[in-house]
Amino acid sequence: xxxxxxxxxxxxxxxxxxxxxxxxxxxxxxxxxxxxxxxxxxxxxxxxxxxxxxxxxxxxxxxxxxxxxxxxxxxxxxxxxxxxxxxxxxxxxxxxxxxxxxxxxxxxxxxxxxxxxxxxxxxxxxxxxxxxxxxxxxxxxxxxxxxxxxxxxxxxxxxxxxxxxxxxxxxxxxxxxxxxxxxxxxxxxxxxxxxxxxxxxxxxxxxxxxxxxxxxxxxxxxxxxxxxxxxxxxxxxxxxxxxxxxxxxxxxxxxxxxxxxxxxxxxxxxxxxxxxxxxxxxxxxxxxxxxxxxxxxxxxxxxxxxxxxxxxxxxxxxxxxxxxxxxxxxxxxx
Amino acid sequence: xxxxxxxxxxxxxxxxxxxxxxxxxxxxxxxxxxxxxxxxxxxxxxxxxxxxxxxxxxxxxxxxxxxxxxxxxxxxxxxxxxxxxxxxxxxxxxxxxxxxxxxxxxxxxxxxxxxxxxxxxxxxxxxxxxxxxxxxxxxxxxxxxxxxxxxxxxxxxxxxxxxxxxxxxxxxxxxxxxxxxxxxxxxxxxxxxxxxxxxxxxxxxxxxxxxxxxxxxxxxxxxxxxxxxxxxxxxxxxxxxxxxxxxxxxxxxxxxxxxxxxxxxxxxxxxxxxxxxxxxxxxxxxxxxxxxxxxxxxxxxxxxxxxxxxxxxxxxxxxxxxxxxxxxxxxxxxxxxxxxxxxxxxxxxxxxxxxxxxxxxxxxxxxxxxxxxxxxxxxxxxxxxxxxxxxxxxxxxxxxxxxxxxxxxxxxxxxxxxxxxxxxxxxxxxxxx
Lengths: 334, 433
Prior knowledge:
Helix content of chain A: over 70%
Order of helices and strands of chain B: HHHHHHHEHHHHEHHHHHHEEH
Helix content of chain B: over 70%
Strand content of chain A: under 5%
Low-confidence stretches of chain B: 1-5
Radius of gyration of chain A: 22 Å
Distance between the termini of chain A: 53 Å
CATH architecture of the largest domain in chain B: Orthogonal Bundle
Largest sheet of chain B: 2 strands, antiparallel
Mean pLDDT of chain A: 81
Oligomer: heterodimer
Number of domains of chain A: 2
Strand order of the largest sheet of chain B: 1-2
Number of strands of chain A: 2
Shape of chain B: globular
Shape of chain A: globular
Largest interface: A-B, 53 and 47 residues
Order of helices and strands of chain A: HHHHEEHHHHHHHHHH
Structural class of chain A: mainly alpha
Number of strands of chain B: 4
CATH class of the largest domain in chain B: Mainly Alpha
Strand order of the largest sheet of chain A: 1-2
Strand content of chain B: under 5%
CATH topology of the largest domain in chain B: ABC transporter involved in vitamin B12 uptake, BtuC
Largest sheet of chain A: 2 strands, antiparallel
Mean pLDDT of chain B: 84
């Protein structure tokens, strides 16, 4: 690998070392970015689960709604308006869902609530398919952010990705301040561990639930709007991301916000690194003897780590369940 | 102790009760034998076969959801793996000319389901409730994604196919024609339904119910809820494997869709819409959902949307499912007060149907503009032709939707009043008696 000299200085790293370092830096950046996006959604999901006791199956659908609303609004009024309006719209839908859907179902138990959100996810996907079709829509990065932010070794890192990272970190910080420093944050925190006590203390639990649900879904929609142009905006995006989101929440520990944060970054990093690696068993130990070449063993022998990447989060889930069933930082049994 | 035991034990069934009980199963068997003589066309035979498979699958799902209280989002894993193993088994048996006839092949699928249920179940059933639901989803995704990686075994996107007619023949049946497959499915359905019903009557079946209702007390009694859940999970996997095997035999192919989330969702829909509170519920649901998905897909492009809406409506308004709704009326029927309620139903049904008609009209018109905008605006929904371009359609659907909703809301309150009155009459009778 020949590297152009910059400002007269010779880069003394040897070629393969530089490539490896480049891979590590870029993958770390991408991994943190993906992890922060996951956390934008997982945080809402965790808080909703802790307070309402219902794991919102349709949470990833609000992420998708955010992306599609963002696409549509940015077509009409530009990206920045979309970034503001789309989450509000999705949050309003979330509020309506909580008020007119989840609350009546609540008396039928948690299974009914979970089933309601399951049906909702199904219906939202169908509606999105009806309105925007099954193929990906052309959601572009705004031109004001369409330039390389900096160059590491030979790779241009796009400014839009830095913007995504900044937005998610800003929201993370804002969330932290709201949770730790404001009154409503205190109530939410209390409700994370002692939801009944909060109700006994006379807070309007119904309104808090509605608010939390709205904010949670709006956060998911923010993730959708900023991820939409960088990833693919398509009607199956909720179905692809949803299961990973649940893995994050279970691995982190159901109802644990710090756990969700750690698990988001962990899964983001693991998956990004796995995708960029090409090693396989045949690469490590040499090709399989021809006697086994056409058996199923050949599949396992020849598969690369990059190909295994989609199942890595689920393997992690099973491992966590075997060795630490309550999740990394979880305390609750159910 | 023995005194208490004898006093609380239910009386032995009388001869008429026994006759009723066994008569029911015999009737079911006779109906299954006679069905193809009444509806002999190829299409209806295929439908019956699909319904039979769906019945076994839904009932196996209800062992988890209805009887043990475990909400699984990944039940298709055991169905799909059963199907794949059976396809491979048919190929191996056919190639080596082993003397194994097709009718016993579904057992291979069942044992596969049992094996994987036993393998994955121990980890999955450590916790119940929401955690179990998420775990089942994760495990399902794990298996479904692995299926796309292990191409030699699962055949990638295309799947693996087999020829069911090349096996050892028994009674001269080749199992080529659909009628023979129908009888195979019908026989296995009857066997599986009886076996699963029997399972609910065993001490294990009862302990499953106890674990569903109050796991803490189960622990006090000296059982381990985890073990009970695990056993229920294994049985459920076994029957799901049989259903998958029959599906694989029916289509002569197994592909990754068998394992996927869609399949898991469909069985959940079927069991829940039918009603998870009664043994017969998933049977009703399987029949309903299979016919609905076959029928609706002919009538409208967006049948899956209606499917989802029906499911949400059931969750919101009839958590007992279709069977739950019907069974609700049993006490009224016994008290003879059912006729008092019926007129109010009629009053409520008219605006509700109007509301649904308005909704369908609006959806179909929107679909016309978004999915096929270039087409002729004279479209047909559910066999009713209308012009999607005319502005009056919007007005009509809005009036139907809003008007229907307002009237229906009042009428359903009246239904509840009439219901309460009818039910209280019965209660007073009880008190008087």
